[in-house]
Amino acid sequence: MPATAAWLASAEALLNRCIDSSAQALGTARRLQGTSVQIDIEGIARIRASAHQGRLVLLAGDDSAADAVISGSPAALLQLFRGGANREPGAPAAQIRGDAETANRYRELFMLARPDPEEELSRWIGDLPARRVSLFARRALELARQARRTAGENIAEYLQEEGRDLVNRTELEEFLHGVDSLRETADRIEARLVRLEQRLKGAV
Amino acid sequence: MDNSGRKVDFGFEKVAWGDKAGRVRSVFASVAGKYDVMNDLMSLGVHRLWKQFALSLTGLRPGRSALDVAGGTGDLALGMLRQVGRSGRVVLSDVNPAMLEIGRDRLLDKGWVGNVECIVADAERLPFEDDSFDCVTIGFGLRNVTDKPAALKSMHRVLKPGGQLLVLEFSTPVAPGLKPIYDAYSFKVLPLLGRLVAQDEASYRYLAESIRMHPNQETLLEMLRTAGFAQTRYHNLTGGIVAVHRGYKI
């Protein structure tokens, strides 16, 4: 048997710790006793997850048949395991093959066993510093999101209002409305011309 | 079983089966006082990460019980005490009283009393009832045991059903190009450090030799299976210089 990567062992230990601390997750893991699911992270790894005695076992390099296969890009799998049933249009989707019920139960288990970063950090640096780091990280993340939103709005405004390289929504709607009116007018003229032609043919 | 005629490895030397335990005991009695300093020096502190990784795999929760076999100065026992908390129980055992004394003092100095026991015990014949512990660890100790299969069976016996054994031990480097560097370091630098810091070159030469004579990853994995462990796996650390083997009692 090949060695199991240390990062996979750490991920397994982390998930099992979370399963242990949630009665619902433990119940789900017990219901999955004896089943397995293969997770294909495209271009990165193929992981076999199985449940034994309420514990999740993650293995790499096991190619025996699994009850279900979940495959997709890292972003798609992350979205799936975060519980994102309503993905954004155009976002990559994960694929499920085999026993969909088992795959869905594993998805539920991963969602229930999702680690709390603040809790994990507190194991290393203590509760209070972990709380402060967590608050700082949240503020930094919010600031980054706000900065991205503001930068996007500023760039759009410059391109639309000052550079005139792009049109704004109102101008675009007016333009499209004008195109529609023009098309309707052209259609009416065409219909009138057809009627005139028919009348002239009738007179001759 | 009569082992009177049998020979066993003591580093690169072959010694009588019954002599190894005594010689290992004298090696560790000699290095006990400088053991922790030497570990930091020899591994440049990386042994702390190896032990931390092993501790992350124990799956212990508050209230559970654990046994650290050949626990020496108590690094793993201390980590497991933090995991099981005041309501749990940890037993630190070692065949060498000098090492165990240092471990016991260390745990006391850190404020752990009441739920920790320090016991001089032979890994091959652990003096505990069947199904006693949720987790058993042996860190850098198995290679010094004379009868490894007997020690693994003994650890299997004292584990509760569902309990896990973790073996943290030096192993065979698998990273390309690492072996010659590692060999040079083991046979040139380690004995020199032993001479300069611990004033004991022979003990650190034994350390390097005993690592080479220890079963490689796959062999030890098979030994775990033979001893009755299920769901056995191993994880290479630092290119295979160290490996963590694990197995469950089902």
Question: In words, what does this structure look like?
Answer:
The complex is a heterodimer of chains A (204) and B (250). In chain A, strands 3-2-1-4-5 form a 5-stranded mixed sheet. The longest helix of chain A has 36 residues, at 127-162. The termini of chain A are far apart. Chain A has 7 helices and 5 strands, in the order H-H-E-E-E-E-H-E-H-H-H-H. Chain A is of the alpha+beta class and 204 residues long. In chain A, helix 5 crosses helix 6. In chain A, 19% of the residues are buried. Chain B is an alpha/beta fold and 250 residues long. Chain B has a single domain, classed as Rossmann fold, CATH 3.40.50.150. Chain B contains 9 helices and 9 strands. Chain B has helices spanning 20-31, 35-43, 46-56, 75-84, 97-109, 148-158, 178-197, 201-213, 217-226, and strands at residues 7-10, 13-16, 65-69, 89-94, 116-120, 133-139, 159-170, 230-237, 242-248. In chain B, the strands form 2 sheets. Chain B has a 7-stranded mixed sheet, with helices on both faces. In chain B, strands 1-2 form a two-stranded antiparallel sheet. In chain B, helix 4 links the parallel strand 3 (65-69) and strand 4 (89-94). Chain B is globular.
